[in-house]
Amino acid sequence: MKYICGIDEAGRGPIAGPVCAAAVVLGDNFPFEILRDSKKLSQKKREEVAIIIKEKALCYAISFVNHKTIDKINILQASLLAMKKAYLHVINNFDGIDKVLVDGNQVFDSFHPIEAIVKGDSIIPEIMAASILAKTSRDALMITLSAIYPLYSFHTHKGYPTAEHRRLCSVHGISPIHRTTFHISITDK
């Protein structure tokens, strides 16, 4: 059997918190019918499917790159770094990958043939699974961070620049986990 390592990220658009990536390898017996683009599943359904992915995937890895690194190297490079870290973890724990498929239009240096697939999270099962793991993992972390920084309601908007999030930033200033290179988008009215 040929094994695909599917990779996707979550958290490029927020103005706070890390970017998260997941890499997933699925086998023939995986229940593929449960997979969708993570954005097309409710939060509850995403969490249910994430549990099944973790139980039934042949291998998976989740990686975070924090806001400080995002500010240093930019969000695109930080996203690629998170994806590469997840990929390296998978290949250190699973032999037999034939190809790496990444959601989007950019790739990182890989030990395997690698291809970027635009809208891959809608058409490639392994990327769909990675999309779900990245989104649920990042959301869970932002809920945890909301307890540490309660003034910002991270549990509701997950760091995305909603009107309420921007209002809270204008009232309280930025938190220690805000991306400072996104400062203009925080303070613009």
Give a quick precis of the structure.
This protein is 46% helix and 17% strand. The chain contains 8 helices and 5 strands, in the order ββαβααββααααα.
Please provide a written account of the structure.
The structure is a single chain. The chain has about 190 residues and is of the alpha/beta class. It has one domain (about 5-185): Nucleotidyltransferase, domain 5 (2-Layer Sandwich). It is built from 8 helices and 5 strands, in the order ββαβααββααααα. It has helices spanning about 45-55, 65-75, 75-95, 120-125, 125-150, 155, 165-170, 185; strands at about 5-10, 20-25, 60-65, 95-105, 115. β1 (about 5-10) and β2 (about 20-25) form a beta hairpin. α1 crosses α5 and α2 (about 65-75) packs across α3 (about 75-95).
Task: Supply database-style keywords.
single chain; Nucleotidyltransferase, domain 5; 189 residues; 8 helices; alpha/beta
Number of helices: 8
Question: Please, how many domains?
Answer: 1
Share of residues in strands = 15-25%
Largest sheet: 5 strands, mixed
Number of strands: 5
Can you give the mean pLDDT?
94
- Broad structural category: alpha/beta
Secondary-structure blueprint:
Layout: E1 3-10, E2 19-25, H1 43-56, E3 59-65, H2 67-73, H3 75-93, E4 97-103, E5 114-117, H4 120-123, H5 125-148, H6 154-157, H7 163-172, H8 183-187
Parallel strand pairs: 1-4, 4-5
Antiparallel strand pairs: 1-2, 2-3
